[in-house]
Amino acid sequence: MRKLFFTTLSTLSLFYLWSSKALAQDEFGINDLADSGINLGTKDLEATISGIVNISLGFLGILATLLILYGGFIWMTSQGNADKVQKAKLIIISAVIGLVIVVSAYAISRFVLSSLYNVTEPNPDGGGGGGGGGGGGIWPGCDEPFDPNEPVICSISRSSGPVGTYVTIYGYHFIVDEDPNTFGEVQIGNVVTEIVECNNQSTWSANKVTVKVPVLLLAIHNIELKNDKNIQSIEDVPFTFNVIEGTLGPNIACLVPDNANATALPAGVVIEGAGFSNIGGT
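^ thats the sequence. predicted structure below, dont judge the formating
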Protein backbone atom coordinates (compact mmCIF):
# COMPACT_ATOMS: atom_id res chain seq x y z
CA MET A 1 0.00 0.00 0.00
CA ARG A 2 2.78 2.39 0.96
CA LYS A 3 4.79 1.51 -2.13
CA LEU A 4 1.76 2.20 -4.36
CA PHE A 5 1.12 5.51 -2.57
CA PHE A 6 4.68 6.79 -2.97
CA THR A 7 4.92 5.54 -6.57
CA THR A 8 1.73 7.40 -7.50
CA LEU A 9 2.91 10.55 -5.74
CA SER A 10 6.30 10.51 -7.46
CA THR A 11 4.71 9.94 -10.86
CA LEU A 12 2.30 12.85 -10.41
CA SER A 13 5.04 15.20 -9.21
CA LEU A 14 7.28 14.41 -12.19
CA PHE A 15 4.31 14.65 -14.55
CA TYR A 16 3.46 18.08 -13.13
CA LEU A 17 6.98 19.37 -13.78
CA TRP A 18 7.08 17.86 -17.26
CA SER A 19 3.67 19.17 -18.27
CA SER A 20 4.47 22.73 -17.25
CA LYS A 21 7.53 22.70 -19.49
CA ALA A 22 6.83 20.33 -22.34
CA LEU A 23 3.12 20.91 -22.83
CA ALA A 24 3.36 24.67 -23.11
CA GLN A 25 3.15 24.29 -26.88
CA ASP A 26 -0.01 23.29 -28.69
CA GLU A 27 1.36 20.59 -30.98
CA PHE A 28 -0.97 17.67 -30.26
CA GLY A 29 -3.71 18.09 -32.84
CA ILE A 30 -6.22 19.75 -30.52
CA ASN A 31 -6.74 22.65 -32.88
CA ASP A 32 -7.63 20.18 -35.64
CA LEU A 33 -10.42 18.79 -33.48
CA ALA A 34 -11.68 22.27 -32.69
CA ASP A 35 -11.66 23.21 -36.37
CA SER A 36 -13.80 20.17 -37.17
CA GLY A 37 -16.61 21.54 -35.00
CA ILE A 38 -16.07 19.52 -31.82
CA ASN A 39 -16.87 21.68 -28.78
CA LEU A 40 -13.71 21.62 -26.66
CA GLY A 41 -12.79 23.47 -23.49
CA THR A 42 -11.24 26.92 -23.68
CA LYS A 43 -8.30 26.23 -21.35
CA ASP A 44 -4.91 25.47 -22.87
CA LEU A 45 -3.39 22.01 -22.45
CA GLU A 46 -0.85 23.14 -19.86
CA ALA A 47 -3.56 24.59 -17.60
CA THR A 48 -5.71 21.47 -17.99
CA ILE A 49 -2.90 19.06 -17.11
CA SER A 50 -1.80 21.23 -14.20
CA GLY A 51 -5.38 21.27 -12.91
CA ILE A 52 -5.60 17.48 -13.09
CA VAL A 53 -2.31 17.09 -11.23
CA ASN A 54 -3.37 19.58 -8.55
CA ILE A 55 -6.63 17.69 -8.04
CA SER A 56 -4.70 14.42 -7.82
CA LEU A 57 -2.32 15.83 -5.24
CA GLY A 58 -5.33 17.10 -3.27
CA PHE A 59 -6.87 13.63 -3.44
CA LEU A 60 -3.64 12.08 -2.12
CA GLY A 61 -3.67 14.57 0.75
CA ILE A 62 -7.22 13.56 1.61
CA LEU A 63 -6.23 9.90 1.38
CA ALA A 64 -3.32 10.48 3.78
CA THR A 65 -5.67 12.19 6.24
CA LEU A 66 -8.13 9.28 6.04
CA LEU A 67 -5.28 6.84 6.69
CA ILE A 68 -4.34 8.80 9.81
CA LEU A 69 -7.94 8.58 11.01
CA TYR A 70 -8.03 4.88 10.16
CA GLY A 71 -4.84 4.25 12.11
CA GLY A 72 -6.25 6.16 15.06
CA PHE A 73 -9.43 4.11 14.90
CA ILE A 74 -7.45 0.84 14.96
CA TRP A 75 -5.40 2.10 17.91
CA MET A 76 -8.50 3.17 19.84
CA THR A 77 -10.18 -0.19 19.29
CA SER A 78 -7.07 -2.34 19.84
CA GLN A 79 -8.04 -3.04 23.48
CA GLY A 80 -4.38 -3.34 24.37
CA ASN A 81 -3.53 -5.78 21.58
CA ALA A 82 0.17 -5.15 20.85
CA ASP A 83 -0.07 -6.27 17.22
CA LYS A 84 -2.96 -3.89 16.48
CA VAL A 85 -1.21 -1.03 18.24
CA GLN A 86 1.94 -1.64 16.20
CA LYS A 87 -0.13 -1.82 13.00
CA ALA A 88 -1.88 1.44 13.87
CA LYS A 89 1.45 3.16 14.53
CA LEU A 90 2.82 2.05 11.15
CA ILE A 91 -0.30 3.29 9.34
CA ILE A 92 -0.22 6.68 11.07
CA ILE A 93 3.53 7.17 10.55
CA SER A 94 3.27 6.18 6.87
CA ALA A 95 0.29 8.47 6.33
CA VAL A 96 2.04 11.43 8.00
CA ILE A 97 5.15 10.88 5.87
CA GLY A 98 2.98 10.68 2.75
CA LEU A 99 1.15 13.89 3.70
CA VAL A 100 4.46 15.70 4.23
CA ILE A 101 5.68 14.47 0.83
CA VAL A 102 2.48 15.64 -0.89
CA VAL A 103 2.75 19.13 0.58
CA SER A 104 6.50 19.26 -0.09
CA ALA A 105 6.08 18.11 -3.69
CA TYR A 106 3.55 20.85 -4.35
CA ALA A 107 5.63 23.54 -2.62
CA ILE A 108 8.89 22.49 -4.30
CA SER A 109 7.24 22.32 -7.72
CA ARG A 110 5.79 25.81 -7.30
CA PHE A 111 9.12 27.19 -6.07
CA VAL A 112 11.18 25.59 -8.85
CA LEU A 113 8.83 26.64 -11.64
CA SER A 114 8.46 30.18 -10.28
CA SER A 115 12.23 30.52 -9.96
CA LEU A 116 12.79 29.21 -13.50
CA TYR A 117 10.19 31.62 -14.87
CA ASN A 118 11.74 34.60 -13.08
CA VAL A 119 15.21 33.66 -14.30
CA THR A 120 14.24 32.92 -17.91
CA GLU A 121 11.58 35.64 -18.38
CA PRO A 122 12.43 37.53 -21.58
CA ASN A 123 13.96 40.96 -21.19
CA PRO A 124 11.74 43.46 -23.02
CA ASP A 125 14.85 45.29 -24.19
CA GLY A 126 16.33 42.18 -25.79
CA GLY A 127 15.96 40.84 -29.29
CA GLY A 128 13.37 38.29 -30.29
CA GLY A 129 12.29 36.37 -33.30
CA GLY A 130 12.02 37.79 -36.77
CA GLY A 131 9.39 40.33 -37.62
CA GLY A 132 6.30 39.86 -39.71
CA GLY A 133 2.85 41.37 -39.80
CA GLY A 134 0.87 39.83 -36.96
CA GLY A 135 3.03 36.72 -36.90
CA GLY A 136 5.71 37.60 -34.38
CA GLY A 137 8.19 40.40 -33.89
CA ILE A 138 11.09 41.75 -31.88
CA TRP A 139 9.20 41.73 -28.56
CA PRO A 140 8.53 38.16 -27.34
CA GLY A 141 4.85 37.46 -26.76
CA CYS A 142 3.70 40.60 -28.54
CA ASP A 143 2.68 40.38 -32.19
CA GLU A 144 3.33 43.21 -34.59
CA PRO A 145 0.07 44.66 -36.00
CA PHE A 146 -0.72 43.86 -39.63
CA ASP A 147 -1.46 47.53 -40.32
CA PRO A 148 1.90 49.36 -40.42
CA ASN A 149 0.16 52.55 -39.29
CA GLU A 150 -1.23 51.07 -36.07
CA PRO A 151 0.99 51.47 -33.00
CA VAL A 152 0.83 49.07 -30.07
CA ILE A 153 2.52 49.06 -26.66
CA CYS A 154 4.08 45.70 -25.76
CA SER A 155 5.66 46.44 -22.38
CA ILE A 156 6.95 49.17 -20.10
CA SER A 157 10.15 49.30 -18.08
CA ARG A 158 8.38 49.99 -14.77
CA SER A 159 4.82 50.39 -13.55
CA SER A 160 5.21 52.56 -10.44
CA GLY A 161 7.31 55.39 -9.06
CA PRO A 162 7.22 59.04 -8.01
CA VAL A 163 6.70 62.03 -10.26
CA GLY A 164 9.68 62.51 -12.57
CA THR A 165 10.38 58.81 -13.01
CA TYR A 166 11.67 57.74 -16.42
CA VAL A 167 9.52 55.09 -18.10
CA THR A 168 10.65 53.32 -21.25
CA ILE A 169 7.84 52.08 -23.49
CA TYR A 170 8.42 49.24 -25.96
CA GLY A 171 6.26 48.30 -28.93
CA TYR A 172 5.69 48.71 -32.66
CA HIS A 173 5.03 51.47 -35.19
CA PHE A 174 5.78 54.46 -32.95
CA ILE A 175 7.20 56.10 -36.08
CA VAL A 176 5.63 55.54 -39.51
CA ASP A 177 6.95 58.30 -41.79
CA GLU A 178 10.49 58.21 -40.34
CA ASP A 179 10.63 62.00 -40.30
CA PRO A 180 13.42 62.86 -37.80
CA ASN A 181 11.56 66.01 -36.77
CA THR A 182 8.12 64.46 -36.23
CA PHE A 183 7.20 62.38 -33.20
CA GLY A 184 4.07 61.17 -31.51
CA GLU A 185 3.08 61.72 -27.91
CA VAL A 186 2.57 59.73 -24.73
CA GLN A 187 -0.06 60.62 -22.16
CA ILE A 188 -0.14 59.37 -18.59
CA GLY A 189 -3.39 60.17 -16.83
CA ASN A 190 -4.44 62.34 -19.81
CA VAL A 191 -1.38 64.54 -19.31
CA VAL A 192 1.15 64.79 -22.14
CA THR A 193 4.55 63.58 -20.97
CA GLU A 194 7.99 64.99 -21.68
CA ILE A 195 10.05 62.88 -24.08
CA VAL A 196 13.47 62.22 -22.60
CA GLU A 197 16.47 63.30 -24.63
CA CYS A 198 19.80 61.53 -24.76
CA ASN A 199 22.94 63.16 -26.13
CA ASN A 200 20.73 66.04 -27.34
CA GLN A 201 18.58 63.64 -29.36
CA SER A 202 15.04 62.42 -28.70
CA THR A 203 14.68 58.86 -27.44
CA TRP A 204 11.57 58.42 -29.61
CA SER A 205 12.16 55.62 -32.14
CA ALA A 206 10.02 53.18 -34.10
CA ASN A 207 9.99 50.61 -31.29
CA LYS A 208 10.96 52.44 -28.11
CA VAL A 209 10.58 55.75 -26.30
CA THR A 210 11.50 57.00 -22.84
CA VAL A 211 9.23 59.55 -21.17
CA LYS A 212 9.14 61.42 -17.87
CA VAL A 213 6.17 60.93 -15.56
CA PRO A 214 4.41 64.31 -15.22
CA VAL A 215 2.97 65.87 -12.08
CA LEU A 216 -0.09 63.77 -11.25
CA LEU A 217 -2.21 62.77 -8.29
CA LEU A 218 -1.07 59.72 -6.32
CA ALA A 219 -3.11 57.11 -8.18
CA ILE A 220 -3.00 54.58 -10.99
CA HIS A 221 -3.16 56.24 -14.41
CA ASN A 222 -3.57 54.82 -17.92
CA ILE A 223 -0.75 55.13 -20.44
CA GLU A 224 -1.77 56.17 -23.95
CA LEU A 225 0.48 56.51 -26.98
CA LYS A 226 -0.04 58.11 -30.37
CA ASN A 227 2.46 57.69 -33.19
CA ASP A 228 3.73 60.34 -35.56
CA LYS A 229 0.50 60.03 -37.56
CA ASN A 230 -1.56 60.78 -34.44
CA ILE A 231 -2.97 57.23 -34.40
CA GLN A 232 -3.87 55.82 -30.98
CA SER A 233 -2.22 52.57 -29.83
CA ILE A 234 -4.46 49.49 -29.90
CA GLU A 235 -3.88 47.54 -26.66
CA ASP A 236 -6.81 45.39 -25.48
CA VAL A 237 -5.99 46.27 -21.87
CA PRO A 238 -4.21 49.61 -21.35
CA PHE A 239 -0.90 49.73 -19.53
CA THR A 240 -0.95 51.72 -16.30
CA PHE A 241 1.49 53.60 -14.09
CA ASN A 242 1.03 53.96 -10.33
CA VAL A 243 2.24 57.35 -9.11
CA ILE A 244 3.48 56.95 -5.54
CA GLU A 245 5.07 59.15 -2.89
CA GLY A 246 8.81 59.15 -2.54
CA THR A 247 12.05 60.82 -3.50
CA LEU A 248 13.10 60.49 -7.11
CA GLY A 249 16.00 58.08 -7.39
CA PRO A 250 18.58 57.82 -10.16
CA ASN A 251 17.03 57.56 -13.63
CA ILE A 252 19.46 56.69 -16.41
CA ALA A 253 18.54 57.95 -19.87
CA CYS A 254 21.58 56.64 -21.72
CA LEU A 255 25.34 56.17 -21.80
CA VAL A 256 27.48 58.32 -24.08
CA PRO A 257 29.05 56.53 -25.85
CA ASP A 258 27.08 53.30 -25.41
CA ASN A 259 29.73 51.13 -27.09
CA ALA A 260 33.46 51.08 -27.70
CA ASN A 261 36.08 48.96 -29.38
CA ALA A 262 37.81 46.57 -26.99
CA THR A 263 41.20 47.97 -28.04
CA ALA A 264 40.08 51.46 -26.94
CA LEU A 265 39.35 50.44 -23.34
CA PRO A 266 39.36 51.87 -20.78
CA ALA A 267 37.18 54.66 -22.15
CA GLY A 268 35.32 57.54 -20.53
CA VAL A 269 31.53 57.22 -20.38
CA VAL A 270 29.00 59.95 -19.57
CA ILE A 271 25.81 58.77 -17.85
CA GLU A 272 22.87 61.01 -18.68
CA GLY A 273 19.69 61.07 -16.67
CA ALA A 274 18.06 62.58 -13.60
CA GLY A 275 17.88 62.05 -9.87
CA PHE A 276 21.65 61.62 -9.43
CA SER A 277 21.72 64.33 -6.76
CA ASN A 278 19.32 66.43 -4.73
CA ILE A 279 18.83 68.76 -7.70
CA GLY A 280 18.80 66.10 -10.43
CA GLY A 281 20.28 66.77 -13.82
CA THR A 282 23.03 65.22 -15.91
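The two ends are 71 Å apart (CA to CA).
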